[in-house]
From TrEMBL:
Protein's recorded name: Probable membrane transporter protein
Membrane topology note: Multi-pass membrane protein
Membrane-spanning parts: 6-31, 38-63, 75-96, 108-129, 141-174, 210-232, 244-261
Organism (species): Candidatus Enterocloster excrementipullorum
Cell compartment(s), UniProt: Cell membrane; Membrane
Upper classification of the organism: Bacteria, Bacillati, Bacillota, Clostridia, Lachnospirales
GO cellular component annotations of the record: plasma membrane
Keyword Transferase: no
Length: 265
């Protein structure tokens, strides 16, 4: 890879992590499709690098929030959701490996991921625009929380996006959280799923080939983005976060349509 690509990957991880920390989407939902669009690395390598970047960002954001006493994480629901997401993270990674082994043409794997992400992102966008008209729930049962977290973890790990927009929709609908509270709880859930996904990749020996310096740069970008995103999140109103989230979803939909065309072409 050329030097300018290293710089570009760092900028993408940094910018995506800022947006991810503000909106609670982890950043992977931006990093994964954007890097796929460049087509310079394999789908599995991009998934792995994206997951590691998201893990670094969420680690910083969650720990910093707890240490500063500014955390809005609801441990009664967040921890069961996180446990479910951890189990789902392993299941999702296994599903990705199974899908990869099914296709000799790895571009097909990328096409399937892009199509799934397109559907999820489009559904999220529609829900976010209409959410004021939707009657929400307040799920408190721990077993139900684990089951919901399991589904989130599977999507998160299988798509290599960390957690993304689907987390927010679930937290809005099932737990009646406001935007900023949902953002912090989403990052907490993402942290669980990404830790187990990474451990599963290491234990099963399915780590793809990549430059260690690229991983370091993207991890640094993720942490710095998380720092900037936390500061910005505290200074803006929830309605501004909602508008940014809608804008990001629209952009991601466009990128995924392009990626499907590229992979299928």
């Amino acid at each position: 890879m050329n030097t300018y690509l290293y710089i570009l990957f760092w900028l993408i991880s940094f910018g995506a992590s800022i947006a991810g920390a503000i909106c609670g989407i982890g950043g992977g939902v931006i990093i994964k499709p954007v890097l796929d669009a460049f087509g310079v690395l394999s789908v599995s390598t991009i998934s792995f690098l994206s997951s590691c970047t998201v893990l670094c960002m969420t680690c910083y954001s969650v720990i910093k929030g707890k240490m500063s006493g500014e955390s809005l994480i609801d441990m009664r629901t967040g921890t069961p959701l996180g446990i479910g997401a951890a189990i789902g993270g392993v299941a999702g990674k296994s599903m990705f490996q199974a899908l990869s082994s099914m296709f000799a043409d790895k571009d097909m794997v990328g096409a399937v991921q892009a199509a799934c992400l397109l559907v999820i992102t489009l559904g999220t966008l529609i829900y976010t625009i209409k959410k004021d008209q939707v009657k929400t729930l307040r799920v408190e049962n721990a077993a139900a929380c684990v089951a919901i977290g399991l589904v989130l973890g599977i999507f998160s790990s299988f798509l290599g996006i960390g957690g993304g927009p689907i987390n927010l929709v679930v937290l809005f609908y099932f737990f009646s959280m406001d935007t900023k509270t949902a953002a912090q709880n989403s990052l907490y859930i993402i942290l669980f799923s990404q830790i187990t996904s990474l451990l599963n990749t290491l234990v099963t020996g399915t780590v793809p080939e990549f430059s260690i310096w690229l991983l370091v740069l993207m991890a640094i970008g993720g942490i710095l983005g998380g720092m900037c995103g936390r500061v910005i999140n505290k200074r803006i109103e929830s309605r501004v976060v909602d508008k940014l989230f809608i804008l990001l979803m629209a952009v991601i939909i466009g990128i995924n349509i392009y990626n499907i065309y590229q992979f299928m072409g």
